[in-house]
Structures are given as structure tokens and as C-alpha cells.
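Extended Data, panel c. Modelled sequence:
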Amino acid sequence: MRKILLFFFLSASFSYGQSMNGLQLDNYAGVHSVYLNPSAIASSHWKAHLNVGFGSFMASTNRLSQETVLFSGKSYKIDDTKYGVIQNELRGPGVMVQLRNNHALAITTRYRSAQSFTGNYQVVDWLRGDVKELTDMAGSINLKNEAFSEYAVSYAAPVYEKDKHFLKVGATFKLLYGWQTASIQSAGSFQSGTSGTAIYNATGFQGHHSDLAFTSDLKIAEALKGSTPGKGSGIDIGVTYEYRPNAEGNQYLLNGKNRFDPTVANYLVKAGISVTDIGKINYNKTANYAATTLSGNFDPLSYQGLKSSQDFHNQLANDLGLEGKATERKITVKLPQVITIQADVNLGKGLFVGGVWILPKAKSIENLRTSSVISIGPRYEKNDFGFSLTGQYYGTFKRAAIGTNLRLGIVTLGTDNLLGLFKKNGLNPHVYAGFFIPLGKWTREKDDDQDNVSNRLDQCPDIAGLWAFKGCPDTDGDGIEDRFDKCPEEAGPKETNGCPDSDKDGIFDKNDACPHEAGLARFNGCPDTDNDGVPNHEDECPQLAGAPELGGCPDTDKDGIKDSQDKCKDAAGLKELDGCPLINLTQNLAQSADKELTARIAKALESSPSLPENLKNDLNAWFTKHPNGSVKLTFSGTDQEMILRIAGYYKDELTTLVGNRVTAAVAITQAGTVGLKTELVP
């Protein structure tokens, strides 16, 4: 009897639910946070988080063994009083993964079993043999029991992120498998009978149970395959808002993107609201009993020797006269839906103050009793350690408790009723524990050269550079990577391979003798405005084309004298005469031998002592004809010194051309000009 399911007397005096807010508010809670608010997993502190195993257990002094409640057959002493487990929440393998842009996906599994009982519990002790005699008493009973598991997928994502404001939403879809549902409501009384028996008279009775409630050997493997009497679905929805006044201070540029520092909580205040356990489980075949009056004679000895819950059921139905009177019908069990409001304040340096307000939906006959809960308390957290202490007030029962949570490495443990683990305080003792594997915590990627390009992607990890060039430098900021820039310290266009060309003449400034004036390559980038082959900086007449030998200045009459210095720029002349020619006096001769040849020579000698080749040939022919002939030159003018210089110059040049057949004479006159008379002397 002590080792089987007492179906009709299942639970403790009350059951107040398991909130575990210290665990689920933690920013490092990972996949566990999805149970409080599915939006919480977006922008998590973990890249991925694997829950390996987790269990939450609530105990009661009303100890009963039941297949659907893990460890319910064990007893534990607290303050010299025996307690047994009456409520489970087992979280099986589950994983949360962060996706791109702070989106997150979670896949979870969970099993929950909970019970509720109000009425005269002395009957249970009497049937179990702990009480020898049962006195006359009221025997009203109101009890419920639920056990179900779920497979769930959750998704969360930011929907608004601007300036100081961050909003994210999330939802969970659950496939539900009902393992057991049971309920009894009965009003009546017990009267002492003979030989230790008791008579139960009920004035109203109704109840139901599902198949697995009475199987003597519950197969968990079969349940995991979906071989359960109930099936259904449910959803959780949630939204979280974060106020981030220091958002810019927590941002940093890396690999071309602005990022929030993943090693810190970016919010000052966080607030969220969620609705969980929206859904139901349908049991298509349940045994149902209903009677306005019934009575039965109970003998505790008939129960204490039973080996299985099925045996107990048969004996109970026989004693109450219900055997063979059950009807079959469908039952829908609603999930224990709650609205949860969360708030969290970041005090800095890993310290937080968080609060949760749990508001259960109005209870229905199928639901377990659950209480409204307000919890608030401080918390310290970092990636490998967390500790919280919460004060909790249960509105339904008007009682308070202290809860705590410790996260150390890959282990987490805690309780919603710390004092209840050591001493009676009017609330059920509660404890939870589990372990997990973080599959990659967020850290700021290393950037040794501090160029906002992570070492992982930096092609020049020892030199600060730019993201555009995968961390390699562009010292002069011209958009050309240094290793491809022929002038890495001077900005320049791509056309010149990164070298500057200020005057856009296609010649690098470093090779340009005139970097600020467009010029020609043959003059090292300097201009030649008049295109005379003399660069402007060497050209004495840069706007007028001229001869290089004259400093780039023009010589219109080609007499070797710059126009600017030539008084007779349209007529070739002598330097001594400022570019003006000699006055030809030969043409004034009345008669002259070989007059035509003389005239031609005289004309040629007006501006220079040189003779054209054809004229020189004609003169040599004349000398051949006149072997003793000569050329006589007579220079006249007022400046004796100048005239002598000109005469000597002409004589020397012509002697070079025709030999020693030239004579030169000087005549001082009062004329203002310098004249030349040319004669051929046979």
C-alpha cells in the first residue's frame, strides 16, 4: 500500500507552483529564460546554450507514492517531519542558438506533474495505517492531478532598435502529451464502523480519470513515442523592452559594423510581459463517475496489502459501489495559463535588481490551484557565476518566502522557499538543480592592432589598417592600400597608382618639377605655354614662341637678336647695331664692274658677313675668272671704334669663306648711320 498510487488522495494540503524567478531572470539563463518569456532568448549572452538536465521538486508532509511524480515514493525529514515529493518539473534536453542579427531559436522538452488536494487528509493516514482509528468526521474531498510533457520550439527576434530603445518579441509552440488527468469532488462524512472499519456516506460525488492513472507499470519510453492518452498543443508569447541610455557607450565598431558589447548587459531598465501555457490537452477516453448519493464500507486492511494502483482502484470502486458504472467521455484539460510581468534594473558591475509578478488565469475545475506571486530581489551575474536572493509573496496564501539561485560553472541550483528546507514555514519545501553546457559565450573578438578589424579577418594583424582593406593600412587615405600604393605617404588617384598629381598632367608630384602647373613629361612636368621647346621657367618670353638659344624669345628677322632687343625686328641686322642692318651704299655707285654680282653680295652683307652657298659659289667663280681679284669693303660712320669692330668682324668671316682676297677700309663720316660699300676689284 505504501508503494502504490493512492489515486483518490493524491496530494498535499495545497500546491503553490514553482516560479524559479532567480534562475530565469538571469541574463545567462540561456534556454531556461524561454520558460519565463520566450522573447528573452533574443540577444542572449550565450551564442548557444544546451540544457542537459534539470529538475524542480516540491514536497509535502502528505506523502504519497505515484508513478507520474518522480521520487514520490521517497521520504525526507525536515525539522523531524517527513516530507515527500508531490510536484515535478523536469526539463529534458534543450538547446538555444543565437542566429544572425540577434535572432534566436530554441528547442526544448519538459515534463510537468502537479497535484492539488483540499479536504480531510486523515482518511489517507487511516487507510495507510498511520492512524489506527477513524473518528466520525466530515469527509469532503476536492482533488486534482495532472501530468503532461511537451516538445517545444521557440523563436525570438528584435523588432525595433533605435537610439536608446530596443524591443524584441518571441513565441513558443508546444506539442503536448497528456500522461494523466484525474479529479474527484465529493461531499460526505465518515462514521466509525465495526472492527476498525468506517462507513462513508456521500451526498454528492463526481470524478474522472485517464488511462495512465491506473496503469501499474507506466512506460516512459512509450509516452515519449506519443503513446499517451491525451494530446494537445499550446503557445507562449512574450515581448521585452530595453531602455539603453548608454547604448552608444556600449557600442564599438568591428569588421565594418557597429556592435553592442556582448560582455555586458546593455540596458539600464528592462521590462517584459508574457502569457504562457495558452493551450489545452484533449483526453478522448476517460472513465467518469457521477452520483448524487452513495455509501461504502472501508476496511484499511483491504488496502494495505495491495500491490498495484490497479488493485487499489478495483478495491475502491468495489467499496463505493462504482464498479462497472463508469461512463466514457472526452475531457479537455486547460493548461495552467499565467500572465507574467518582468522588470529588471541594471545597477552596473554585474549587479541587478529584478522583479516578477505572476498572475494566474481564473481557475477552472480542470486546472491545478496556483497562486499569484510577486518576487523581487538583487542579483549578481557574470558568465561563469551568478547568485540571486529574492523575496516572494504568494497572494493566494498570504505568505512570504525567500528564494535563492546559484549558478556556478555548468551547474545551477536553487529554491523558491529557502527557509522551508530547514523549518516549517507554512509553504511547501522546494528545490531545483540542473546542469548545462554553454556552447560558446559572446566575447569581444581580439583586435591586437586596434584598427577595428578582428585578428580573425585581419590580413595585416600587426599594423593598424582599414576594414575596406581587411585590416591593411592606407597611410595617406587615398583609397589605395599601401602595398599597392607607389606613394603610400602622399594621397593620389588610382590612375597614378596612388601618387599625387596636383596639376593633373599625368606626372607624379614627386617627379614633377612644376607640381602645381600642368606640363610636359619632357620638361619634368613643367609647362611650355608657347610650345617653343623652352619650358616656362626657363623661357624669357613664355607667352611668345621663340628660339631656345634666345631664351625662348622670338626673333622675327632671324638675325639672332631677340625682338625685344631688336630695333629693326623686321629686318635682319647686326648686334652692334641693335639688330639693324648696314646701309647699303653700293647701290649708289654710278658704275661697277660685274654690277649684278656686286649688288647681290652687297645685299647679303647688309645683315651678316655670311654668304649663301650659291652666292659663295658665284663669287669663287668670279675669283677664278679674275685670279688677282678681291672684294673691297668700305665701312663708314661716326663711331670709329664700333666701325673698326664691324670691319674686322666682316673681314675675318669673309676671309674664312673666300680666302685672303678681302680688304676692309673705314671711313669716318658725320652720317648718323653705318654704311657699307662693296666693290669687286678685278
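The chain has three domains: 21-372, 449-490, 573-681. This feature is highlighted in the accompanying rendering.
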